[in-house]
Each structure stands twice: as structure tokens, then as C-alpha cells.
Amino acid sequence: MTQSISSLYFPNEPKQPTVVSSHAKSQAATDALGKVFDNRGVYFVADYDKSNGNYIADVDGNVYLDVYAQIASIPLGYNNPALIEAAKSDKMIRALVDRPATGNFPGADINEIVGDILKVAPKGQDKVWSGLSGADANELAFKAAFFRYQAKKRGYLTPFTQEELTSVMKNEAPGSPDLAILSFERGFHGRLFASGSTTCSKPIHKLDVPSFKWPKAQFPAYKYPLEKHIEENKKEDERCLKIVDDIIQNNQIPVAAVLVEPIQSEGGDNHASAEFFQGLRDITLKHGSLLIIDEVQTGVGATGVMWAHERFNLQPPPDLVTFSKKFQSAGYFFHDPEIIPNFAYRQFNTWCGDPARMIIAGAIGQEIVKHDLVKRTAEVGNYLYAKLEKLAEKYPKYLQDLRGKDRGTFIAWTLESGEARNKFLSDMKTVGVNIGGCAEDSVRLRPTLVFEEKHADILVEAIDKLLSTY
Amino acid sequence: MTQSISSLYFPNEPKQPTVVSSHAKSQAATDALGKVFDNRGVYFVADYDKSNGNYIADVDGNVYLDVYAQIASIPLGYNNPALIEAAKSDKMIRALVDRPATGNFPGADINEIVGDILKVAPKGQDKVWSGLSGADANELAFKAAFFRYQAKKRGYLTPFTQEELTSVMKNEAPGSPDLAILSFERGFHGRLFASGSTTCSKPIHKLDVPSFKWPKAQFPAYKYPLEKHIEENKKEDERCLKIVDDIIQNNQIPVAAVLVEPIQSEGGDNHASAEFFQGLRDITLKHGSLLIIDEVQTGVGATGVMWAHERFNLQPPPDLVTFSKKFQSAGYFFHDPEIIPNFAYRQFNTWCGDPARMIIAGAIGQEIVKHDLVKRTAEVGNYLYAKLEKLAEKYPKYLQDLRGKDRGTFIAWTLESGEARNKFLSDMKTVGVNIGGCAEDSVRLRPTLVFEEKHADILVEAIDKLLSTY
């Protein structure tokens, strides 16, 4: 039997959830918070000191198996000893108290910190630029794509014209050109202004926010189970690729880059085939647009490979790959040296990332490699998926369109309505599980990379127990 | 004599700079970095382990008096023991290894962490929202302003219309309305897309980046010395206020908020009077626009008050005040409860800030209060300014338009050209000082809050020594 990584990391991990069913302390702390901070999204106030491995504790003493993991962003379980060691290192203390303007005055350990991150870069990528969040990573990638797109037209080392230098100060072309990022309906890429303009999953993310008038293509909507709808789904790929091609050819604003998630995550765990992504790569090459793969949610192992798009064997590799969440640090990978802008201070800001968070990312990568956690996640995912398939047979109304087969623990399914889904998510706490949703009507599993068969058993039993009362 | 805070914090702080004049190791590390990361802005590779108090060391053994302080962002000196203590705390370890989705699952210490930040909030502000950088803080504030502006028209609790819910998914009005932030020529507010659209100081910040077509007003351009040009400068205030009033009345896109720095920092340390800012407050009230004060660079003590706009006695206080840099954490303060959006998940993202950085901010605030560092900075600034005035008499060509009198150590001056300024900044390293510029032709002093008379003496002597060779 494979050694249990969770037992190695977490000798005191709970054996099962504890549900005390009181939420008084959590409610009181949330109410207090509401006087000074937006508390409207708070589910509960956590006790991170008592959280351990795959279990999150709240301040009332409830201990939940956590398959949501801070919106898909805890990689190695709560209070992982390897990360605690990194957090206590001298390198970390310096990064915290002497926060550098990394672009101007990087520290002596910068090559080590960046090198550790690059050790787990996607295949074909060997350079990185650092940011602070998924939205930030995407917007930095947009900037890099716009710089590169214009440099291709202008010549990499060609100086700016006087007209560009003057017009840009008025936010006018040619210095501030009208260029677009093409993204997909149901995609999610963040909530700042440019990233928000590419996001297209729910109105609440965007209402009242001015936006760039950038186009949206359609992402394939497959019929499930996939093996029974091969021809139809292939036609769906072709239909969607044609839309992309048409938009790039005809859009009034030139499309500098196509932005896509390997699996649309927030938008409902919508999968598409390798052929679809290869088609996207070909279309971008044909038109001279860049290809940006947003791996903010899919990256770092959860899908059973380190980076989800590596399954697609894209040639050449994507121009930019953004990351955040499970890497606990943010930024983009790239390979073309000319993605680094021709002059200093173009891709720049005061901090250019956060070495403290980059150190954590390096430690995460190292642990993943050391314990082969991507392979383990693939195995555990297969184990879990098979059990969920059986549950789907037992409760077809509550586990529709099960998806994520052979995609590690990156699994989702759909309920018959948003109300049914919300009730399910909330009720799962009564059987000891913290679980999240995606789209309006779906459930998404986003456990850590140290989620094992024994945790899968507890999850499946809890779902069974709950649904047997429905 | 006042106790020396720097001696208390840094018993081993160097007594003077060390210039070894070799840069070989720094160059080698920078070259290595360039293979995987944009290294074009790197001045030198720092040795933060050996940096101490007001002195920054590089990997070659040079030790500079640092009056640039990571682009105005190191608050309490390198390796400050109080921050090291915060960095080693259990609370910090948890924040680093169990990074929460703060909007959904805040930790048990959230009220303490937020409370510590609010202890040093600007007068009249009692709530906060957290982000990750200055640009992020400003864009989050823009979103809050747009939400509030629309809520005033719609009614705070009025649900969205079906038309809004549908049109927003196409990035179209009314769901995604055309609304503007009015900012000022020579202002700097960050380099993401919306913040970049409000930034108007240098072309390099903006070239090739698509932008929102938001208007710019003119910021007063005073004649110096101020006491000799009172009438002219008053007229300049009036002229600029009229432009603001005209734009808000006539701009095709409604102006939801006016965004302004208390001192335009990156853009040249351009000061304006309390009357000018009071005029802005009045104009925004008259037209129902919000007032956002960008304290990213001016905040946290350097100007001799905790927040630079507190000198203006604005009534009512600004609607939003953004911060970052010296606070080491980012976000905005506010007071109107309806700045918190009517529904959950409007002002939201995965992490909603970073508790690790918020803990540092709280510790910074506490130390500032405990050691009265704002008052000390005001005193040291006056001492330094008087000495610089004498230098300006001695070298009028190299210290033109000296500004920042009675503004703590937030001091700047102008040289006769960009080339002369750049040569001065570079040459200052040969006399042991790390110093930065602003605008094309100016020098800005941005030392820490533990910069004292003895450091001011070394700085002034170094400038004198250098300029005597010109």
C-alpha cells in the first residue's frame, strides 16, 4: 500500500468531522467584523490553529472535512509542517520585514526564490514574472501580451514615436491603442477592470463596473457522458473554434490575445478536448494573436497533472500561463524572451510580487515533487470518481453530469436548480463537510493535494447520508 | 535631548556608509536573473541580511544610507526588531501557511488584525477593505465608488433589473455603465488598466496599454518660494478648481469620483493648498461625485502627519482613502456604511487581502504610535529642510524649487534637466547614498520614519561633497 502522505504530515489529523451544531461564536465574530469590514460573504469564522490537514475547524468547535480549501487555494493541508518550516526560515523573516521593490533592489536570494518556482513550471516555459493575485496575474499577462503584440508590429527595439508619447498621456491612440483580449462565455479571470471585462460567468462579478468592450467566444458545451456523444462533441469543438476564428478576423478591435481556462472552473467545471485547445493554438498562430492560458484555479496538481493544459500538448507552448491560488503566489510563466518588454519600467510596479509568498510557492513545489503528490492526486481522484459514479446512479437527480473523470480530484456535478444546489452545499455542513459550488447549479470539489482515499470515503459517506434524507 | 529611536531599534546601525565601488557580484546576480525574470530595472542586488536601520547593503559590500527606502515603502528601517517579532509570531505563521479566503472564512484573529489597522486610520474613517498593492487598492476603491454612485441613483437596496443582469454579461450598459474617475495631470495611481487610465505622469507607465477614456483636470502648479507668490498661487487654485467643476458638469461620461493625491509624488512632489482640497471636497459634494484620496505614497507618517490629507481638514472626510507602501499592506479606509455594497460578492475576490501583510501593518501602526514617530519625522524633516535650504543657496542650479517645508521628510527639488538629475542620482552612490527621483527632473527624499538628525547630517554632507565636485 502507498504510504499515507497525510499521516506523515499530519499525525494528529482528525479521523472524522465533528459537528457541534452551534454557530454562536462564529456569528458574534462575524457581526463584530461587519461594523468595520464587508462581512457579507462570511460562511464561518475559522480557527486555523485547530485546523489540521484536510480538516478546517471553526471557533465554535465544528471540524469539517474541507473539500473547498479556501476557494481551491490550500495546496498541502492546514498547518502543513513543511510550510511551517518555510514560514519560520530566516529567508522568510527577511522577506516579511524588508519587503523589497523587487524590480529595483532584489535580495541576494532572488535567483533561488525564482528558481524554485521555475522548477515546477509548465513544460516549455522557463521564465516567470510575479504578481499578487489571480486577477493581477491575468492583467499583468494582458499587459505583456499587448506589449508583445505591438512590438511585433513596430519592431522589438524600435523606439516609440513622438505621436505615441504624446497621445498616450491623453489615453488616446496610437500611444494607448484599442486592443482586445478575446475570452469565453462562462469564463472567469478575476474582478478588476480588465480582468473583469474578460470574466463572463455571473452578473454579480461585474454589475455597475465599467468595462472594455472586448469580445467573447463560446466555450464548448459537451453532452455527457462523453463516451456516448463523441461525434456531437467533436462538432461542438468545430463550431466554437469557428467562432473564435471569425471574431479574430472580423472584430473591430484587434485581438492581441486569446485567454482561456483549461477547465472553466468558476463557470461550472466546463471541460473541452485537447483538440479544441490545439485548434485555439493554431488559430492564434494563424492570426498573430497570443495565447494566454489561465491556470489560476486548475494549476498546481489538482487535475492529476501539474498544469492542466499540459494534457493538450500545445505546440508551440502557450505564450503566457498565469497562476495563483494553490501556488499561494501569483504571476505568469512564459518562454519567448521578447515577452520581456524592450525597455525597463514597462512591466513594473513598486513591489513586483511578494518574495514572502514566492518562498511559500517554492516550498509547495518542492513538497509536491518530493512526495509525488500530483500522481497521488490522480490516483485518489480516480478512486473518488468511481465512488461518485455509483452515488450518481443511486441519486441521479442530485448528481447530474458528473465531470472530471481522469482529472484528479477536480470533479463537479450539477443539481436540478440553484436553490437545490445551495441547499445541498449548506446541508453538507450538517454532515461535517465544507464544500463549494460553481456556476449557478453545480458543486465543485477542490480538496487539497493531500486528500486521500480515506478522506474520499468520508466525503462519499457524508453525501450518501445527506441524500438519503432528501 | 530626545532619545534616538534608531539607536534603540538598531544598536548596530552603521555610523556612516561604506563604498567599496565594486559591483561585480551584483552584476553577476542581475545577469543570472535576466535569463528568467525582467531585470531591466535592477539598480543592485541587496543583501538584506546585512542591511540595518537606515542603511541598505548590497552583495558587494557597499552599504548605502537609504533615502529611497524601496520606493518610499520601508517604514521602520531594515530588520526592525519589532517587525521581526511580528514576523515570528504564531499569528503570522498561521497567516502564511493557512492563507484564508478572508471574505468567506476569516480566521479567529480577524477582528484583532483589522482593529490594529484601524487604530491609525485617518480622522473620520472607521472601516476598511483590504487589497494587495497600491494599484489594487485604488481599483478596489474605484469599484466601491461606482457601486455607491449607482446605488445612490437606484436606491441602496433596490434589486438589479433584468436588463442590467442581461446587459452586464455583454459588457454593455446599463449593467456595465459608462462611468468615469476624474484624476489629474501629473498624477500617479498605479499601472493596471483602470488605475493606469487615471495615471498621467510618464508615457512609459502607459504605452501600448488600452485605457478608459477618463478625463484629467489640472493640478495646481505653484510658484516657489510659496511665501513670495501667495496671490498667484491662490489664482492657480481657482483656475484648477474651475476645470474640475467644468469637467464634472460637462463630461460625456458621468464622473463617479474624483481621485487625487494629497501631494503628487511620482509626478514630481507637486503640492497644493488646503483650500484647493477643500474646494475639491465642495465640488464633489455639489455634483454627487465621491472623493478618493490616494495616500499610497503620502500616507503613514512621512509628511509629518499620519495621513497627509489630515492637514486639509476636509468636511465631511473623503469618501475613500487608499493606502499601501509604508503600511506594507494595501486597501482603503471609509466611513459611510453604504460604501459596503448592498449584496455579498460584489466587492470580493479569493483572498480579499493578505492577513500576513495586514499583521505587519498593525505592528507598524503600533510602533509609530508607541514611539511618536510621526512627530519625530516632522522634527527631523524641519531640521533637514533648513539644511537643504542652505545647500540650495550654495548650489542653486542643483537644488531648484526646494519643496516639502513643514512636510516632514517628504522633500524634493529639481535639477535643470533629466540628464542632470539622473547623473546626480547615480553619482550619489559614489558618496554612499541610495536616493530616488520623481518626475523627469526632480529628486525625492523618502527615508524611513526612523531617519534622524544624524542621518540628515550624513545625507547633507554627502550632497555637499558631491556637488562640490560638479
From TrEMBL, chains A, B:
PROSITE patterns (alphabetical): AA_TRANSFER_CLASS_3
Top-tier EC class: transferase
Cofactor: pyridoxal 5'-phosphate
BP-aspect Gene Ontology terms: gamma-aminobutyric acid catabolic process
GO cellular component, one term: mitochondrion
Catalytic activity field: 4-aminobutanoate + 2-oxoglutarate = succinate semialdehyde + L-glutamate
Pfam families, per database record: Aminotran_3 (PF00202)
InterPro entries (alphabetical): 4NH2But_aminotransferase_euk (IPR004631), Aminotrans_3 (IPR005814), Aminotrans_3_PPA_site (IPR049704), PyrdxlP-dep_Trfase (IPR015424), PyrdxlP-dep_Trfase_major (IPR015421), PyrdxlP-dep_Trfase_small (IPR015422)
EC number(s) reported in the record: 2.6.1.19
UniProt family annotation: Belongs to the class-III pyridoxal-phosphate-dependent aminotransferase family.
UniProt protein name: 4-aminobutyrate aminotransferase
Organism for this UniProt entry: Candida maltosa (strain Xu316) (Yeast)
